[in-house]
């Protein structure tokens, strides 16, 4: 077989610089081996399609999901800095699996702040022991379908609990989940959060549509027809903004964007080793990455933590901008060969677009649009 001159060559990209060398958990040989395993599996999962069974199993075996569960439920909680830098490294190794972990953890965090102690104890223990997998379907309460007049998921209170009718527009890994943490809107406009078992009568997990990237996250919509959610499944509410309860907001979306950016920058640096003309660009992007990592470090260790909404938003805007520019730079440096579907730079470009739409607040969206249109914006 004749090799096409621009066939994608196996990429031996520069090893990422450790984000936080002083963190013993992240520096441990176990965590480093986990990253190497995820990275290795990441190459094949895009071709295989479907739920990333092996990667998720590797994630569970590594014990990382338990960093997010309190000890009393069988977890091994870690500091906010370890968790956020852990996310960053995991995203650099395999964005899909790191993203799946964030959605599982979003479900865990909502379960943990519930006053429904019986349900909280049972689900937290099941999740800590990896007996079950939970995910979220909550975007219709924040960023999705906000312009639609009628609530997309109605929750009618009855003496037995709530009757749910409508659709969860987005839920990652719904087909693999035993439980979806989701919210319905009552006729009085108040929202209620529930831990909905996926095997309840009337719950239909729709086939996952083809996405621009991250197809293996098996993100899809879920239809609910006359589903009875008894009181025992109640988590939070009813109240006006059920997701605001007990949540100070986080920087996880930015940590993942920085991890994806790191992967692209390492790819560009590998190219730059042989080509001096690429070095200024690689140096500049690396400097921005290190500066933003420093912000993450400050935000996760500051005595005034958690960071303010403004600080989080500024970090997200800059992380989004960096992940897009880093991926495009790697593609530019990889030239036509990088444009082939199997080349990691072309995958990085597709994956980078995800941050434009995932849990993207209005101000972050506006900043991206302004950057694309070269309009200056006054906010940080
Ligand atoms: C890969 C992926 C995984 C995700 N996983 C999860 C998950 O696990 N859990 C979860 O809760 N969420 C998840 N989300 C949802 C995500 O966080 C956002 O909520 C979602 O991307 C918002 O997009 P939307 O199309 O639903 O937005 P919408 O605002 O509903 O926009 C839909 C369409 O409506 C139109 N439109 C928008 N605004 C207006 C307006 N003001 N007037 C008229 N028309 C308008 C536009 O044409 C737009 O294309 C995921 C998203 C993606 C892409």
Short description:
This protein is an alpha+beta fold and 380 residues long. It contains 11 helices and 8 strands. The radius of gyration is 21 Å and the shape is globular.
Fold and architecture overview:
By secondary structure, the chain is an alpha+beta fold. The chain has three domains: 24-128, Orthogonal Bundle (Butyryl-Coa Dehydrogenase, subunit A, domain 1); 134-239, Butyryl-CoA Dehydrogenase, subunit A, domain 2; 252-372, Butyryl-CoA Dehydrogenase, subunit A, domain 3. 47% of the residues lie in helices and 14% in strands. The chain has eleven helices and eight strands. It has helices spanning 24-27, 29-48, 53-62, 80-93, 95-112, 117-128, 252-274, 279-301, 309-339, 344-357, 362-372; strands at 134-137, 153-158, 161-171, 179-185, 191-197, 203-205, 220-230, 234-239. The strands form two sheets. A four-stranded mixed sheet has the order 1-4-5-8, with helices on one face. A hairpin with a 2-residue loop joins strand 2 and strand 3. The longest helix has 31 residues, at 309-339. Residues 1-12 have low confidence and may be disordered. Bound molecules: flavin-adenine dinucleotide. Residues 103, 135-139, 143-147, 169-172, 211, 214, 217, 219, 357-359 line the site of flavin-adenine dinucleotide (FAD).
CATH 2nd-level architecture of the largest domain: Up-down Bundle
User: What is the fourth-level CATH superfamily of the largest domain?
Assistant: Butyryl-CoA Dehydrogenase, subunit A, domain 3
Provide mean pLDDT, rounded. Answer: 92
Helical element count? 11
Bound molecules: flavin-adenine dinucleotide
Structural class designation? alpha+beta
Q: What's the total number of strands? A: 8
Number of self-contained structural domains: 3
Compute the CA-based radius of gyration: 21 Å
Q: Would you give the CATH topology of the largest domain?
A: Butyryl-CoA Dehydrogenase, subunit A, domain 3
Q: Strand order within the widest sheet? A: 1-4-5-8
Helix content: 40-55%
**Text of the CATH class of the largest domain:** Mainly Alpha
Q: How are helices and strands ordered from N to C? A: HHHHHHEEEEEEEEHHHHH
First-residue to last-residue Cα separation: 54 Å
**Main sheet?**
4 strands, mixed
**Share in β-strands:** 5-15%
Shape field:
globular
In terms of per-residue confidence, which ranges show pLDDT below 50 for 5 or more consecutive residues? 1-12
Assembly type: single chain
């Amino acid at each position: 077989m004749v090799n096409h001159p621009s066939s994608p060559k196996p990429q031996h990209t520069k090893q990422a610089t450790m984000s936080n060398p002083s963190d013993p958990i992240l520096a441990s040989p176990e965590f480093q081996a986990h990253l190497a395993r995820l990275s290795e599996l990441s190459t094949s999962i895009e071709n295989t399609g479907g739920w990333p069974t092996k990667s998720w199993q590797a994630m569970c075996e590594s014990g990382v999901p338990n960093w997010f569960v309190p000890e009393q439920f069988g977890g091994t909680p870690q500091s906010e800095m370890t968790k956020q830098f852990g996310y960053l490294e995991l995203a650099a190794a395999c964005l899909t699996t790191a993203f799946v972990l964030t959605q599982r953890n979003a479900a865990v965090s909502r379960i943990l702040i519930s006053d429904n102690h019986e349900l909280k104890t049972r689900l937290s223990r099941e999740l800590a022991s990896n007996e079950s997998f939970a995910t979220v379907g909550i975007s219709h309460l924040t960023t999705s379908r906000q312009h639609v007049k009628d609530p997309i998921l109605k929750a009618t209170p009855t003496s037995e609990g709530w009757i749910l009718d409508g659709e969860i527009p987005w839920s990652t890994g719904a087909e693999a989940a035993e439980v979806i943490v989701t919210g319905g809107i009552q006729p009085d406009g108040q929202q209620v959060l529930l831990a909905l078992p996926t095997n309840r009568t009337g719950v239909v997990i729709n086939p996952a549509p083809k996405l621009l990237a991250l197809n293996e996250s098996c993100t899809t919509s879920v239809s609910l027809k006359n589903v009875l959610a008894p009181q025992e499944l109640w988590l939070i509410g009813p109240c006006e903004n059920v997701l605001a309860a007990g949540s100070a907001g986080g920087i996880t979306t930015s940590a993942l964007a920085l991890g994806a950016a790191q992967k692209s920058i390492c790819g560009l640096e590998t190219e730059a080793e042989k080509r001096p003309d690429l070095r200024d660009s690689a140096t500049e992007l690396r400097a921005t990455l290190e500066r933003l990592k420093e912000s993450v470090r400050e935000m996760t260790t500051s005595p005034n933590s958690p960071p303010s909404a403004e600080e989080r938003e500024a970090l997200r805007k800059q992380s989004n901008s960096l992940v897009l520019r880093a991926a495009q730079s790697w593609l530019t440096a990889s030239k036509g060969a990088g444009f082939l579907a199997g080349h990691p730079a072309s995958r990085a470009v597709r994956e980078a677009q995800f941050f434009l739409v995932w849990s993207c607040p209005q101000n972050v969206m506006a900043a991206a649009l302004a950057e694309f249109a070269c309009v200056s914006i006054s906010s940080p």
